[in-house]
Specification:
355 residues, alpha+beta, 5-stranded mixed β-sheet, two-stranded antiparallel ribbon, 10 helices, 7 strands, 67% helix, rod-shaped, coiled coil
């Protein structure tokens, strides 16, 4: 009788209702497990901050000197986003130094082309205006004066040099804020460039005076210039050309010195960053291994992912650094808990890639 009743009840319960009845307790248990793991991850993140000294602030209004943020995703594992403290080589300065190198390369190309051609592609508007005025006259005298004015346009590199010197002075000030910069060298170089710019300005003024003198006389001339006047103009032009060539060589040399020092600063920054990051990673894995018991409830088949923000190689095109990711298996964490491996061994066995 009882057996028949049980069979009737079994047939009367819909299969779907039975699945829903069983799924509800399982869902509650799964959510509780996720909640517990998230608490464990928050606690583990706090332990890492303390162990790595990342809870210290550089000043009252300054951000933390590094940070750890944890997250748990069921079925995947724990992800810790870690910002390492980089003493003296912040990313923005490192990137600025690289940008500085690009600016100096552009200036070097501009100056190199200027010295090869001896002329500048930018129009000389003063010379164009004077030539236009002379073009209204078609006699032999006007042709002669137009030829004189045309010769002056061959000294058009002076404005380019002046702009290059102004840009170089700006780049020096940027480089002075970078770690490992030789302040004495940069100060001396800045003084030399300032002196060069004064000389360039002097030649710009001398060229403008010569142009005005020729233009004024051309507008009123009824005959060819006197031989003495022509000789004086020619001597002035040759003197300006000679001085400009000397200034070009001096400027190119100073720019090369600046570019060489920029490359040295960038190399030293990169080396210091690599050393600091290696020390931090060793300390990080030692701390993770020492406190691995905090993740003992990590489900089987899930992983601990350590994301070191900006610790990877630099992308020159977009001026950012990739993240370096370490993936640690549950088995390796258990080995740490038992004392079977050290933090250094954990670092060696972890899967590493950049993203």
């Amino acid at each position: 009788m009882i057996a028949n009743t049980v069979q009737i009840l079994r047939r009367s319960i819909a299969p779907g209702a039975l699945l829903v009845t069983l799924a509800m307790p399982l869902s509650i248990v799964a959510q509780e497990n996720v909640t517990e793991m998230r608490r464990a991850v928050d606690l583990f993140s706090n332990v890492l901050r303390e162990g790595l000294g990342l809870n210290q602030r550089q000043g009252i209004f300054s951000p933390r000197n590094g940070d750890v943020q944890g997250r748990y995703l069921a079925g995947q594992g724990v992800t810790l986003s870690i910002v390492a403290p980089m003493r003296g080589t912040p990313d923005n300065v490192d990137i600025s130094v690289r940008e500085l190198g690009q600016s100096l390369d552009e200036l070097a190309l501009q100056l190199g082309g200027m010295m090869e051609r001896g002329v500048v592609t930018r129009p000389d508007f003063d010379a164009m205006r004077d030539a236009l005025a002379l073009s209204l006259r078609t006699d032999e005298i006007s042709l002669y004066y137009r030829d004189l004015m045309q010769q002056l346009t061959q000294i058009g590199s002076l404005p380019v040099m002046d702009r290059a010197l102004a840009e170089a002075a700006l780049q020096i000030r940027r480089l002075q804020s970078a770690a490992f910069a030789d302040q004495s060298l940069l100060t001396g170089l800045d003084d030399e460039l300032q002196t060069l710019r004064e000389h360039v300005q002097s030649q710009i003024e001398a060229l403008a005076r010569l142009r005005r003198d020729i233009s004024r006389q051309a507008a009123e001339a009824e005959s060819m210039p006197e031989p003495a006047t022509l000789a004086a103009w020619q001597a002035t032009r040759e003197q300006i050309e000679l001085r400009v060539g000397e200034l070009q060589r001096q400027l190119a040399g100073r720019m090369q010195t600046l570019r060489d020092h920029q490359a040295t600063v960038q190399a030293e920054q990169q080396l210091a960053r690599q050393q600091q990051m290696a020390e931090f990673e060793q300390q990080l894995f030692t701390t993770v291994c020492d406190f691995a018991g905090g993740l003992r409830d990590l489900p089987s088949g899930e992983y601990l992912n350590l994301v070191l923000v900006g610790a990877g190689r630099a992308d020159e095109q977009v001026a950012v650094r990739y993240d370096r990711v370490y993936t640690i298996s549950q088995r390796d964490l258990q080995d740490c808990q038992r004392g079977a491996i050290t933090g250094g061994q954990l670092l060696e066995t972890a899967l590493s890639y950049e993203y």
